[in-house]
Amino acid sequence: MNPLVSIHDKVFGLVETAGTWLLPLLARFVFAAVLLVYYWNSGLTKLGDGLFGLFSPSIGAYSQIFPKQLEAVGYDVSQLGLSHWAIVMAGTYAEFLLPLLIVIGLFTRLAALGMIGFVVVQSLTDIYGHGATDLATLGAWFDNQPSSVIMDQRLFWVFTLGILVIRGAGVLSVDALLRSRAQNVATA
Predict the structure, then answer these.
(1) Residue 139 Rama label (left phi>0; alpha psi -120 to 50; beta)
(2) Closest by alpha carbon to 100, among 118, 119, 115?
(3) How far is CA 145 from CA 15, 19, 47, 151, 156, in A?
(4) d(CA 12, CA 143)
(5) Which ranges of 32-134 does DSSP label H, i.e. alpha helix?
(6) Rounded to whole angstroms, how far apart are CA atoms 121 and 143?
(7) How many Å separate Cα 184 from the centre of its chain?
(8) CA distance 184 to 67
(9) pLDDT tens across 154-182, in order?
């Protein structure tokens, strides 16, 4: 039995060693493969027309982020305040910037933490702003139905992002490059 345990320990010792650099890289790959285009497309729907659309969000942006408030003012965006505009712009920019930072591995822990916050706010907006309370969309954990958008899918998103918060971007990242340069400067 000891040889079997020894082989097990050696094999999985190598897996664990590889996992320290491979797991963050795979988490960033999964994020890029599943969520990068999703968030960038969502951000594009929020931009207004032309070059100044970067500073003038579309009505769709307000309807996605503040559905009830927009309806209350008769879909007249000019009736919403500066704080609404600032939140819409911050959310729109976050949909472009945070995923980019995660994919290239720059400020990865902070970007992943920001994305976790974004997913939580997105989910709460879906539930309370858009009324996504039907069981198929909202779902529940431990319900034998793994296909709900909010409780099931977004838990996987947050788990993947949590790996990046805990482990960082890994060795193949801008963070690692900057860390290496900083150490070289410190030892020089």
Answers:
(1) left
(2) 115
(3) 32, 30, 35, 10, 14
(4) 33
(5) 37-46, 59-65, 67-72, 82-104, 108-124
(6) 23
(7) 32
(8) 51
(9) 999 999 999 999 999 999 999 999 998 98
The two tokens of residue 121 are 């706010």
The residue assigned the tokens 């963070």 is 175
- CA contacts within 13 A on the Cβ side of 64: 19
The answer to whether 182 and 172 have CB atoms below 8 angstroms apart is no
pLDDT tens for each residue of 65-81: 999 999 999 999 999 99
Q: If you ran DSSP here, which 8-state letter would residue 13 be given? A: H
Q: Is there a contact between 80 and 61 (Cβ–Cβ < 8 Å)?
A: no
Distance CA 180, CA 153 (A): 36
**pLDDT band at residue 8 using 50, 70 and 90 as cut-offs:** confident
Report which residue type is found at 4. Answer: L
The C-alpha atoms of residue 127 and residue 137 are separated, in whole angstroms, by 9
Query: Alpha-carbon distance 89 to 135, whole Å?
Result: 31
In the chain, the amino acid numbered 18 is A
